[in-house]
Amino acid sequence: MCLGNILVAAVALSLWWAFPAEARPTLFSVFDVRVDDWATALVGGSVQIAVLGAVAWWVLPVLARVHARTCLAVLAQSAHERRLTERVDVLTKSRVGVVDAHGAELQRIERDLHDGTQARLVSIAMQLGIARESLADDPDTVATLIQQAHETAEEAMAELRTVLQTIYPPILADRGLGGALTALAARSSVPVHIEFADVGTLPAAAEAVAYYVIAEALTNVSKHAAATRASLRVERADDVLSVEVTDDGRGGADEGRGTGITGIRRRVAALDGTVRLDSPPGGPTTLAVRMPCAK
């Protein structure tokens, strides 16, 4: 603005004589000094140009820096906005992991049903078909085929129950999380000490993930840790469910060796939870999980 006024002043004051008397330019509009002669134009114009030049040279950079800092302060992200941005990044990554885990889970279920239950149902259908054809001619063969079909049907039902348990364990609906964990500990080859606080009513998703995490952790203890004992603590603080599994094994748990920790992280991340694994060489190993459990 100052540079523009300097240019306008230089042109207007040099051509003051060309303006009508009532419309001639003025110097320093605050004082309203009208230019009516060359002396006023040259002296006053020089002073005005000098003043505007000084303002442009010294004052404007300071004002520009103040303006820039003010804009940065106004437009900068607040601590809350930074947390929201970080949260969006975490949720985006966890969503990708959940989608991948969901696809892998569907493939596993389809494979289990196709290779196990479906094959046995086909076998039952074939056995019953042969029995129907042999009903009149060979009753002994029919009896044998019906017995085989019955046994195959029981095996198919057992496999189907196993597949369904990986989706949502029925024991959770029957006995709750506490009873389900007691059953897990009873089946473990390593003695498990359980500390189970009253966690109240949990969402089905949080309950299923907690059961899966503990089942996977105890399986790892039995298979890989060479432990003599393990402890399990489950508690709830406000709307956060905490699960901690500790064993006295050899430690050195490596997620890259297919110990199931990656699957645990994906399932917990789907509920906006966190997983911490502490497993120094020589032990002990501690798996700590925290996840929201608000209804």
Q: What does this 3D model show about the protein?
A:
With 295 residues, this protein is α+β, with helices and mostly antiparallel strands. The protein folds into three domains: 2-75; 82-167; 170-292, Histidine kinase-like ATPase, C-terminal domain (Heat Shock Protein 90, 2-Layer Sandwich), CATH 3.30.565. The chain has seven helices and seven strands; from the N terminus they run αββααααβαββαββ. The strands form two sheets. It has a five-stranded mixed beta sheet, with helices on one face. The longest helix has 56 residues, at 79-134. The model has no long low-confidence stretch (mean pLDDT 75).
Percent helix among the residues? 55-70%
Order of helices and strands: HEEHHHHEHEEHEE
At the fourth level of CATH, the homologous superfamily of the largest domain is: Histidine kinase-like ATPase, C-terminal domain
Termini separation comes to 61 Å
CATH topology of the largest domain, by name, is: Heat Shock Protein 90
| Cα shape | elongated
Strand order of the main beta sheet, please? 3-4-5-7-6
Q: Total domains, how many?
A: 3
Q: Which CATH class of the largest domain?
A: Alpha Beta
Mean pLDDT: 75
By secondary-structure content and strand pairing, the structural class works out as alpha+beta
Tally of extended strands? 7
Major beta sheet summary: 5 strands, mixed
How many helices does DSSP assign?
Answer: 7
Q: What would you report as the Rg, rounded to the nearest angstrom?
A: 40 Å
Report strand %. 5-15%
